[in-house]
Design goal:
This protein is of the alpha/beta class. 28% of the residues lie in helices and 18% in strands. The N and C termini lie far apart (47 Å).
Length: 203
């Protein structure tokens, strides 16, 4: 198994965790001995399980415990933390530990999509819904995530009008794509994340 090392930053007292891997093309230099065990080769993105995120930090342990209690319910989850703290890693670990692990995990960065396009990206559209719409239409991220998990990163940057539509989708569990007339049922579990102070934004 990979060894996770706690690292303490002395100036501000912060605590980090690191995993070290030898590069796949590593060759010992003169005078060095080769490692006795073959290093693990990381061939993909860092995707730990929910339990693997728990390395003894009491706050993380509490978060893992809470996540385990709600991950198979319809309760929407909000992850709050600074940029770079691993909110998407945590959300994906929740998905993989849930009953929906074999279904899609669809991540949407609400801050990275231009405001005029975010509605069509989430809800999808039918051909002819607007100028430039693709002939085959677009299923949209919400429909793509149906049966699995929809991860809305930077939810604090979502435009207010779309927040209203999203609330209706969460309540009714159906969407009407842009240019469409028929509601399409969706089966979602929603995890959102933000670094913003939502209480201040609400006020």
């Amino acid at each position: 198994p990979n060894l996770v090392l706690p690292i303490h930053e002395a100036r501000h007292g912060r605590r980090y965790f690191a995993m070290l891997h030898l590069p796949t093309n590593h060759r010992p230099m003169d005078g060095q001995t080769a490692p006795r065990t073959k290093p693990a080769v990381n061939t993909g993105p860092f995707r730990p399980t929910l339990e693997e995120l728990n390395h003894g930090d009491p706050r993380i342990a509490l978060n893992v415990h809470r996540a385990a209690r709600v991950m198979n319910t319809d309760i929407p989850v909000l992850l709050y933390g600074e940029t770079g703290t691993g909110k998407e890693v945590f959300a994906r670990a929740m998905h993989m530990a849930s009953e929906r692990a074999d279904k899609p995990f669809v991540a949407v960065n609400c801050a990275a999509i231009p405001e005029p396009l975010i509605e069509s990206e989430l809800l999808g559209y039918r051909y002819g819904a607007f100028t430039g719409a693709r002939r085959e239409g677009n299923r949209g991220k919400i429909l793509q995530a149906s049966g699995g998990t929809l991860f809305l990163d930077e939810i604090g940057d979502m435009p207010l009008p779309l927040q209203t539509r999203l609330l209706r989708i969460l309540e009714e569990r159906e969407i009407v794509p842009l240019g469409g007339e028929t509601a399409v049922p969706v089966d979602l579990r929603v995890i959102s994340a933000t670094h913003q102070n939502l209480l201040r934004l609400i006020a």
